[in-house]
Amino acid sequence: MSNLTYLLVVNSAVYGQQSAAHALKFAQAITESEHTLSAVFFYQDGVSNALSTLLPASDEVNLVHRWKDLGRQHGVDLLVCSAAAARRGLIDETEATSADLVCTQDDAFISAGLAELAMLSLKADRVIQL
Amino acid sequence: MSQLLYEFVSSPHQSANSREGLDAVLAASAVTDDIVVVFHQLGPLQLLTNQVTDQALVRSILPTFKMLDLYDVEAVYVLDTCLQDLGLQQSDLAIELKVLSLKDLTKLRRNAHAILRF
């Protein structure tokens, strides 16, 4: 079978383990192939990949920037589960305004719900969870 | 054939896996009727009755598992060997489950459109 549509579900934190970096490499490989990456859905600890406040040392990889590059260059939606995000201090502009907090979610990432995860899972030919 | 299979494999409270997996299942029930949930590995421990979660500083999600039925998620299974390995009876668990074998689980996985594991 060729030309498959992939959905990538990233449940791993932006730093501290290899999984998220692995997910990024996998996403890049899909975009370089004949297959399509429909979206990346960040859930559980994976929501930290959308932090606007990540500040690694200058000689280290900033994974948030890499995800943004991927999204911009290949038109891939970067979706973040808003409920999982809020529990971990990741707040988008709207939430920040209503709760009188500081926005910590990078604006390249889109807040989404879990029903969307189910819909995308049903639409994709392959769902990969990392 | 577009079944979503959710596998619950984590022990309760040690991680948010059970809570966030359950959230994912309940949300998916608004999108499709074809949902299967399987508890195996340490997952059946999530369903133990008489859990006291105050000391673990987490909210008890046991009542939320009971919502599966209300959301018409009826295909809920537990792997037979896991019950044995954990020394559990079905009567130890807070919700009604169907028991399945590893062979059945393999078949479910083969037929599922997508599998999400928590």
Automatic annotation (TrEMBL), chain A:
Gene3D superfamilies: DsrEFH-like. It is found in: Cytoplasm. Keywords: Cytoplasm, Transferase. The lineage of its organism: Bacteria, Pseudomonadati, Pseudomonadota, Gammaproteobacteria, Alteromonadales. GO terms for cellular component: sulfurtransferase complex. One of its GO terms (biological process) is tRNA wobble position uridine thiolation. Pfam families: DsrE. The keyword Manganese does not apply. Belongs to the DsrE/TusD family. One of its GO terms (molecular function) is sulfurtransferase activity. Its main location: cytoplasm. This is Sulfurtransferase complex subunit TusD. It comes from Alginatibacterium sediminis.
From TrEMBL, chain B:
GO terms for molecular function: transferase activity. The keyword Transferase applies. It holds the Pfam family DsrE. InterPro entries: DsrEFH-like, Sulphur_relay_DsrE/F-like, Sulphur_relay_TusC/DsrF. Keywords: Transferase. SUPFAM superfamilies: DsrEFH-like (SSF75169). The keyword Glycoprotein does not apply. It comes from the Bacteria. PANTHER family: PROTEIN TUSC (PTHR38780:SF1). Belongs to the DsrF/TusC family. This is Sulfurtransferase complex subunit TusC. It comes from Alginatibacterium sediminis.
